[in-house]
Amino acid sequence: MTNHATVLVVEDDRPLQDALVSTLEIAGFHVLAASDGGEALKVLNDNAVDLIVSDVQMQPVDGRELLRRLQQRPSSPPVLLMTAYGTIDQAVAAMRDGAVDYLVKPFEAEELERRVARYARPAAAAERGASDPVAEDPRSRALVALALRVAQGEVTVLLHGESGTGKEVLARFIHTHSKRNAGPFVAVNCAAIPEQMLEALLFGYEKGAFTGAQARSVGKFVQANGGTLLLDEVTEMDLNLQAKLLRVLQEREVEPLGASKPLPLDVRVIATSNRDLEQAVREGTFREDLFYRLSVFPLKIPPLRERTGDVAALAQRFIQTRSARPRPLSAEAVARLAAHNWPGNVRELENVVQRALLLSEGEPQIEAHHLGLAESPLPDAQSTARALGADLAGDLWEEEARRIVAALEMNHGVRTKAAEQLGLKDRTLRYKLQKMRAAGLRVPGDRA
Questions:
Q1: How far apart are CA 258 and CA 19, in angstroms?
Q2: Which of 5, 167, 185, 395 is the most exposed place for a label (fewest CB within 10 A)?
Q3: Using CA atoms, how far apart are residues 431 and 73, in angstroms rounded to an integer?
Q4: 285-301 burial: b if 16+ Cβ within 10 Å, else e
Q5: Residues with Cβ < 8 Å from 389, sequence gap 6 or more?
Q6: At how many degrees (to 10) do helices 311-322 and 345-359 cross?
Q7: How close are the terminal C-alpha atoms of the chain, in Å?
Q8: CB 87 within 8 A of CB 94
């Protein structure tokens, strides 16, 4: 099964280029490749491309120069950048210049596929099943029915749920079924962007507004005009920026950094959080006035363990989209899936299905033992890391998870002390813990 979306991979490291191409082809995308920005532009002259996945550091034409040249064209596909730890600032600066997102090397194959599915054209996402929530369980059917009703209006929506429950899927569903569906859907992960960069990314800036602002940049609010802006994990935004966001929402206009006058906005905002916002307000980490502005229509997405009627249907959907030879689940496999606690929610289920497809290759159906789910609902770090695609991330991710668990155990689950011991900011540790939970890893201090 293919996605009918064409992805151009631009990477000068040939072994890595081959690995990226293979990963995306296995996921069902049609993939083209180029070794630098100049070669990529030649490919674009002869081919229609839905998304560009480009390295930043290349010779002779690097990723940022490719981005600049693309902006000179009347229309160009979105650009997802890949960067090493030492060049994150360059990638974030490129996002100011129009890139949609960036990935930090090394990254998991599953994360690459998820980002590509997000930014490739909406039709491709729909074919992957990403645009329509599975709603077999009564709780899910009620939630989707409510989402359909709220989609018809213009109110701001707040989606709350654990990491991996499908908040972005529901946000896209609301956009698709709204009167704004012909407009853009723009998603910003507030937890993944450094604090000092997020304001410029959201609101935009004029040339010369600050050191390094070599050209005017249109912010995400303006990019989403006529459509929907998703503020993913909005609770990770610092208080200063929360105040500016509140003003934008109240005035329905945005003033880019360095601009002489504000720009009018016609944008619907959907915000998500996996934290308890009311608790964050009580703790003083989230503004009460912004909370009320965002939660005009709150929707809580229940964790997968509370909507077990969706499990088999979700698993079958992943089988259909992940395999060139879809095969059924045995009755024992379905029972094993239903009995699992799913601490990583839908993302963990997708990982389990991906592993089962590999282990059941050549078999007529997927059996319970192919799932790799022991009686204990939590897989160990080593097996989970392998399931996430250790060929691209592997040992580094596993070691990082091990160190975080050890620090939390040493500090009796107190996150602030663990973050200090690890040399991380609190928000950075929260972001990494989200990834660990999504992978189904035990996090000391979490409630059972």
A1: 42
A2: 395
A3: 36
A4: bbbeebbebbbebebeb
A5: 23, 108, 109, 110
A6: 50
A7: 38
A8: no
Helix-strand-coil percent breakdown of the chain, rounded to 5? 50, 15, 40
C-alpha–C-alpha distance, residues 243 and 290, integer Å: 8
Residue 387: strand, helix, or coil: helix
User: Beta strand 30-34 with 6-10: parallel, antiparallel or unpaired?
Assistant: parallel
One-letter-per-residue 3-state SS of 82-112: EECHHHHHHHHHHHHCCCCEEEECCCCHHHH
Judge whether 235 and 288 are in contact, CB under 8 Å.
Answer: no
| φ, ψ for residue 238, nearest 5 deg | -75, 165
Contact of 177 with 219, CB cutoff 8 Å = no
Could you tell me the maximum CA-CA distance found in the chain, to the nearest angstrom?
66
Q: Is the pTM of this model over 0.85?
A: no
Q: How far apart are CA 266 and CA 264, in angstroms?
A: 7
Sheet holding 30-34, edge to edge: 30-34, 6-10, 51-55, 79-83, 101-104
Strand bridging mode 30-34 / 51-55: unpaired
Residue 113 half-sphere exposure, CB side, CA atoms within 13 Å? Answer: 25
> In the numeric block, which tokens belong to residue 66?
């490719």
pLDDT in tens, 239-280: 999 999 999 999 999 888 777 788 899 999 999 999 888 889
pLDDT per residue over 308-344, tens digit each? 999 999 998 888 877 777 888 998 999 899 899 999 9
